[in-house]
Amino acid sequence: MIMSYIIYHPKRKVSKIDESNIYHDCFEYNQDPYIWNKQFLHSFCHITQIKAEINNVIFWVSGDTYPDFSKLYCDCVFVIENKIYWSNANSIKETDQIVDNKQTFEHHYKWVNPPHNQHIFKNRKRYTLKADKDLSFQPQDKDKCLIDIIPFLNNQGISLDNLRNSISKTKNGKQSLNSRPFKLTKEITDNLYQYLFENATIKIKGKMIENKHPIKTE
Predict the structure, then answer these.
(1) Fewer CB in 10 Å around end: N or C, the chain?
(2) What is the dihedral of CA 72, 213, 96, 87, to 10 degrees?
């Protein structure tokens, strides 16, 4: 069964590249999902909480306030094209065949290596998801702003309370700062993809920004 997801992550940073606004993760960590590549990359965040298969779609979103958000802004439509397992779950070299180039190694992959040691696995196999370069995009409206998908989801019968209760985790009866993926049916996945595709006046794709990362590598 193909399963797609909405994944909540922190509010995006914004960089002005040429005449464009690019919404992205902070540059201090693994920048997951990594959008500065022809194929968007996903190797770390929430990856143990999803069942990722080819043609799944991950809609990455951030809200206005967490956990009581009233808006969910989609910053990445990630259509999975490749699922590639690492030879070693907790280390990787720049020369590994999975590594796209030096830039992706420096900004994304290497964060699993010492001294960073991010998201270390004890028994799991690690894989990287690579997005379809043509079907995946960052959706923006005509004003270069991200698109809120709450109105669409409400029209599909998914209430705001349902989204809040499903996305926000609870621990010992209290809501934590962590979140969990929200599963979508194939019908809603297809409809949401079409909604964003049709309403995105601007579609930022990896090939448009792959060599424009604000932090250059030697």
Answers:
(1) C
(2) -20
In terms of Cβ atoms closer than 10 Å to its own Cβ (0-12, 13-18, 19+), residue 147 is: buried
Task: Examine residue 216 and state whether it is found in any structural domain, yes or no.
Answer: no
CA count, 13 A, side-chain hemisphere, 204? 29
Residue by residue, pLDDT tens for the chain (218 residues) are 568 999 999 999 999 999 999 999 999 999 999 999 999 999 999 999 999 999 999 999 999 999 899 999 999 999 999 999 999 999 999 999 999 999 999 999 999 999 999 999 999 999 999 999 999 999 999 999 999 999 999 999 999 999 999 998 655 445 556 899 999 999 999 999 999 999 999 999 999 999 999 998 87
As a whole number of angstroms, the distance between CA 124 and CA 102 comes to: 26
> Is residue 34 domain-resident?
yes
In a domain, 130, yes or no: yes
Which residues fall within 8 angstroms of residue 31, CB to CB, at 6 or more apart?
24, 25, 107, 108
Total domains in the fold of the chain: 1
Residue 214 belongs to a domain: no
Query: What residues make up the domain containing 54?
Result: 4-209
